[in-house]
Write a structure and sequence with these properties.
The chain has about 325 residues and is α/β, with parallel strands linked by helices. The chain is about 35% helix and about 15% strand. It folds into 2 domains: about 110 residues, NAD(P)-binding Rossmann-like Domain (Rossmann fold), CATH 3.40.50.720; about 200 residues, Rossmann fold (3-Layer(aba) Sandwich). The chain is elongated and about 65 Å long. About 35% of the residues are buried.
């Protein structure tokens, strides 16, 4: 019996793990998730690395007498009873930021595509053989005001990229970091002021009860006329109907959305890469096909792809291995308990 069990391993993870033979020497790989039916199989492991479908409840944990460490291959950890783990002196780690650069870069890819009408230009040449510049006049980013909602790892990287375009940067965060503000040269303001003064608004907050419809029918009318909205966070942060009305009226000039409100059940991006999510993805496709935003000429929609780079997915594996090795060396990292 090896020391470590990795559960819910997908094909891409198996392939990535082949680059780490020393780690594979101490780890067993399982495609299945932990359940009451198979729990006996994992009773002797001291370290278990699950994904989000293995639920570590008090009842499950008590049946794993040798368990000392759980390192989930996800950012979220609500599938683990962290308080009970603390009682039992079981440490818990996660993967806190595997794609912060990835998502920030994609944010600007969407932004440039939107404000410079890159897709429209590409489609006109490829599909119509038409090289006319009519209706392709865009706007430059230089000197524009970018409103960044959420200044965590992703939002911070967005700020850094924006500085390269010589943009003015306003930010809103429930927990402003004044040292970061001074160091990076942006200004924290209220959400209302950000909406009123920003030429472009980009969202980088987690989705929860406090951020549900953070942009809504009450405050979207405050948005500066002709502004653009970018969302690479979660769809439920914006009230769809309110955004639709603002786009139709011309108050908002355009939106680029990598996420839609119908995706609210997706908790982790890498869920989208799992084969057993195909049925859910098909259902989502049918919803999106009828989505009121998709057919608007001033809206770009992409399929929740901002996280999806080789480097980001590699970081999930590397961070998990580092978490386990650090625990074995008596220096646990990325702890959530």
């Amino acid at each position: 019996m090896k020391k470590v069990a990795l559960l819910e391993i997908s094909d891409w993870e198996k392939e990535a793990l082949q680059k780490f033979p020393e780690f594979l020497a101490i780890a067993d790989l399982y495609s299945e998730s932990l359940s009451s039916e198979n729990i006996e199989k994992f009773q002797d492991y001291a370290i278990i690395s699950p994904f989000i479908n293995s639920r570590f409840t008090p009842e499950v944990i008590t049946k794993l007498p040798h368990l000392r460490y759980i390192t989930t291959r996800s950012t979220g950890f609500d599938h683990i009873d962290v308080d009970y783990c603390r009682e039992k002196k079981i440490l818990v780690s996660n993967v806190p930021a595997y794609g912060s650069h990835t998502v920030a870069e994609y944010t600007f890819a969407l932004l440039l595509c939107l404000v410079r009408k890159i897709y429209d230009a590409y489609h006109r040449v490829r599909e119509e053989g038409n090289f006319s510049l009519e209706n392709l006049r865009g706007r430059e980013l230089f000197g524009k005001t970018l409103g960044v909602i959420g200044t965590g790892r992703i939002g911070t990287n967005v700020v850094k990229i924006a500085k390269g375009f010589q943009m003015k940067i306003l930010a809103y965060d429930r927990y402003p970091d004044k040292e970061k503000e001074k160091q990076l040269g942006f200004t924290y303001v209220s959400l209302e002021q950000l909406l009123q003064e920003s030429d472009i608004i980009t969202l980088h907050v987690p989705y929860n009860s406090s951020t549900h419809h953070l942009l809504n029918s009450n405050n979207i009318p405050l948005i500066k006329k002709g502004a653009f909205v970018i969302n690479t966070a979660r769809g439920g942060i914006i009230e769809t109907e309110a955004l639709y009305q603002a786009l139709k009226s011309g108050q908002i000039a355009g939106a680029a959305l990598d996420v839609l409100e119908e995706e609210k059940e997706i908790k982790e991006e890498q869920e989208l890469l799992l084969k057993d999510r195909l049925n859910e993805t098909e259902k989502l496709k049918n919803v999106v096909l009828n989505h009121i935003l998709v057919d608007l000429d001033n809206v770009l929609v992409t399929p929740h792809n901002a996280f999806n780079t080789e480097e980001a997915l590699h970081n999930i594996i590397v961070t998990t291995i580092d978490n386990i090795n650090s625990f074995l060396q008596g220096k646990p990292q990325n702890l959530v308990s």
